[in-house]
Amino acid sequence: AQSVTQLDSHVSVSEGTPVLLRCNYSSSYSPSLFWYVQHPNKGLQLLLKYTSAATLVKGINGFEAEFKKSETSFHLTKPSAHMSDAAEYFCVVSENTGFQKLVFGTGTRLLVSP
Amino acid sequence: NAGVTQTPKFQVLKTGQSMTLQCAQDMNHEYMSWYRQDPGMGLRLIHYSVGAGITDQGEVPNGYNVSRSTTEDFPLRLLSAAPSQTSVYFCASTRAGGIRTGELFFGEGSRLTVL
Hints:
The structure holds 2 protein chains of 2 kinds.
Chain A: E1 3-6, E2 10-14, E3 19-21, E4 23-26, E5 33-38, E6 44-50, E7 56-58, E8 64-68, E9 73-78, E10 87-96, E11 100-104, E12 108-113
Parallel strand pairs in A: 2-12
Antiparallel strand pairs in A: 1-4, 3-9, 5-6, 5-10, 7-8, 8-9, 10-11, 10-12
Chain B: E1 4-7, E2 10-13, E3 19-25, E4 31-37, E5 43-51, E6 54-57, E7 64-66, E8 76-78, E9 87-94, E10 105-106, E11 110-114
Parallel strand pairs in B: 2-11
Antiparallel strand pairs in B: 1-3, 3-8, 4-5, 4-9, 5-6, 7-8, 9-10, 9-11
């Protein structure tokens, strides 16, 4: 079965500094991977996706992620954090077990201080 | 653009009571699903539907029923609420091929407390 592990439950950064949210995956074949963002009291929104095309994927609001098969990682980065980036971020893998299913990580809460 | 609309946003129930969480989408999406979100556990799939009249179980279906009589609506029923069902519930939808590309559209959630 597919799974994802988000290595940090909380990440704190200062505004203007880089963001790194870490995600490792486990998959028996080439996976599709996604990052979703959830702002407080809101639903989840797709941030970016990797579906076996380019390994460096660009998303909304300046975020990007790199698929590294050798390291089984799909870390999310942003060069400069903004206060509005404060949210919870979920790494997600697509699993095909007869029906298509998304498997969510446990989430990383990003805190941005002035 | 309404997107995915969930009602109610908040609900408090007593153990043993029943209720229905409503979900409606106006994007003509074939696929609809219900997730629950619990602290430290991410989102877990409860039930899903690939079209009107077709539903199936996800990974945590016990205690919940669903039906899909129209493309737009996908209600989630709690038959006899238990404290373990205290959670935030999300409805999500996508087009027929969207689940393969992970493009789910989420509602804003329904926070349920069972006393």
